[in-house]
Amino acid sequence: MIVSMTGFGRSTAEKDKYSVTVEIKAVNHRFLEFNIRMPRQLFVIEDRIKKKISEQVTRGRIEVFVTLEGSGNFSSKVNVDWQLLDEYVQSIKAIQDKYQLENPISLQDILLREDFISFDEDHAGNAELETLVLDAIDEAAKQLKSMRVIEGNVLASDIHNQLNIFSKRVVSLREYAPSVVQLYTDRLRRRMEEFANGQIDEARLVNEIAIFADKADINEELTRLHSHIDQFQKIMKLDEPVGRKMDFLLQEMNREVNTIGSKANDSNIAREVVEMKSLLEKMKEQVQNIE
């Protein structure tokens, strides 16, 4: 099943004094990466949030926004490390006395030092809120997955059409390829007749044709292309993330097409190669957004 890496999901959950709104946005990325923005008191369940979303997605850059309304049972506590603060102040005064410095210690200097003052959130009794948040995350993640599946179907349809056109061009090349040697033979024979006044060295002619036929043979490349196309079609039907596999096969197909272009000394094949590379590039752009 083809699933896009872009999508959006939104969910709101309310209970008692709490109201939770969750928005999840996803874009394409090589791996699964999270960027979660939420109130500090919810940091304790960040790993559980990631795990919940990971049940629905396996690749992409995931941005999560959690908005919480309602005070509930939250309370904050300010902690001052008085012993460390006393030592700090005494040390500053000692330095001032020793070096005759007159700059006083300001309250701002102390407040800017996290060593002395810290804030703790009281999380007691917040199990109900955490459950509410995780439920909202789950619903938003499911909406995200649904949108990614819908967009994935659109991508699959477009890739399927492009692949069909590409496959037809491969078949066309296989049918046309044998004529390249014959065209070269006729052209070479005419040139030899022009320069040799009608007297042709048949042995040399056959040797030249054999060398050209060996260099211009693209049957192996065409066979591998057929194999890659079959694998590509099978992968598209798998019920698992397939983006990387599809990207790898497109690279292999592009390599085979480049080899065909370098081997075939024929303008018609050269034109086909250009069109085939264009089709592969279009498919690659779509595959870059597939999970």
From TrEMBL:
Classification via Pfam families: YicC-like_C, YicC-like_N
Entry cofactors: a divalent metal cation
Keywords for this protein: Endonuclease, Hydrolase, Nuclease
A GO term, aspect molecular function: RNA endonuclease activity
Endoribonuclease YicC-like C-terminal domain residues: 174-291
Family: Belongs to the YicC/YloC family.
NCBIfam families given in the database record: YicC/YloC family endoribonuclease
Protein name as it appears in the record: YicC family protein
